[in-house]
Task: structure prediction
Amino acid sequence: MPERLAPDWNSPPTEVAIILSNIGMLEEAIQALIEAEPVARGWAHFHFTRGNMLMWLRRYEDAAEAFRHTLKIKPQFVAAMVNRAVALTALGRYKEVAKLAPQLAHHGGPRCARPEQWLEYFPRMSELAVRRASEPKRSTV
Result:
């Protein structure tokens, strides 16, 4: 493993997880991230990568938390804000999404009039967007 070359270097173990994810080995990728966490936990890209993988696995609660960690480290990371909004929308937590929206707009991120529109910003979420759109409307505030 590349991390043996420099055990405190955070990039190689995270990149191994990305490679595993790219070839469809998501559970193995998550395991690689678990192993990488001791050296990578202070790196925004690590948490962002973990959040994306958790989104693909439909583990939205865990993904939202990973994106929250990303934003603690790098508060203006627009892609992490968008993906957090998507995860929270998938969970039906529209009030939290509404709190993120002004910050996203301020940093040049997308603006969505309806909560289910956030789901369009992450691949494979269109099925959930269609299902959410057909549900009775909830208050967005």
About this structure: The CA atoms of residues 47 and 139 lie 30 Å apart. The chain is about 65% helix and 0% strand. The mean pLDDT is 79.
